[in-house]
Design brief:
Number of helices: 16
Structural class: alpha+beta
Strand order of the largest sheet: 1-2-3-4
Shape: extended
Helix content: 40-55%
Strand content: 5-15%
Distance between the termini: 94 Å
Number of strands: 7
Radius of gyration: 34 Å
Largest sheet: 4 strands, antiparallel
Amino acid sequence: MDNHLTLLGGKLQLYRRGNSRFWQCSASVGAKQWRATTKQENVNLATKVAQDWYLGLCGKQASGTLVTEKTVADAAEKFTREYEVITEGERSPKWVQGHQIRLRLHLLPFFGKMGLSEVTPGAVQDYRVHRIETATKAGAKMPARSTLHDEVVTLRLVLKAAIRHGWLTYLPDLSPPYKTQGKIVHRPWFSPEEYKQLYTASREWARNPPQPQYKWNAEQMHDYILFMGNTGLRPDEAGNLQHRDVSIVTDHATGQTILEIEVRGKRGVGFCKSTPGAVRPYERLLNRPKPTRGKQKRSRSVKNPPQPLPVELPEPTDKVFPQGGQLKLFNRILAKAKLKADRDGKPRTAYSLRHTYICLRLMEGADIYQIAKNCRTSVEMIEKHYAAHIKNTLDAAAINVMRPKAAKAAEKMAKAGAGGNGKGKGGGKSGQLAKAAGTALAMDADLAPGTLTAETNG
């Protein structure tokens, strides 16, 4: 049998390759060559399938719906292959995998068969509506704003890859309409009183653990809380930290003993200088023997009891926190101290210790630019998520500006209140207000760095 047939006056070709049992078909429609498989072994059935396929292409060509350009699926395949290779060692494997997951689960089912020029701002908005409606109909949780943003970012990267290869001429506007900016809310943190309540609870847990074998973990967690609250490290940065990355030094500018830390995390390699409150917890971490639980062989012999294992101190290449942040234990301490959620109902995590460090440094009057450098972030991020709710960043002298006449009137009232009513300088309502003002000034006076996060004796 001939393995190549011509149908419809030469407009359609039907053929079968030597290593395949199925018939293939090809045709030229819209100045483009098209190929498809009939998935049929019988030539008569394959002929009917091929003719239907060809007539379908002609119908799309006549109605203007035939895609004759590269599709989003083509661009996504190109982007996925080159992004993983080009960013080798510069992007986290999980970050790269996140793009692939978003494409496979959400973007390609919606955009995959579209031509690249069909991805318009309206189509992207239709995608956002589709994602929300689909979740609502299924009774699932509606995708968060950040989730949709990440998916559109992945789509934007795919379209940029298409532009680089000459498949697309320009990048459409993919920004969301209506909600151009999200609501600015502060991230969960611990106020000075809550932070003291937290480390007091962890200290009590370390002194009296539920079971003796958990004492090492409890002591580690207590020092973890104090270390994080006085350095501002991210949880992943603390997880990567080794003892050789930490040095106890005397700061030349202040004369205080602090830690100098070489940080490795999401921003690459950076540096951090701690407050003096981090030194004592780190010294305990440095001098605490390694855990021996589970390493000693059991023996029921009375004559030959198991020999105690030698004490091993951490090596320079050992991790400072070998078991990470110990999420379950941290959550138990939060629950015991009744600090799991902030006043807005947002759950606190180990990341809240970093937020606490930044907020308390701002409350102590630290320079926002220096805090941004020390935390390896931007001033914009601190102003947006942290400084917005810190009252100490507001200058009352600049806000409560008074006109000359109003200032004189206020001065007269203050003098009258101080000496009038026959109650002396401290008597009466005016005296109470003056005393309260003096107390407020004393509370808002400049604090020594690290005062709010330093562990007090208890």
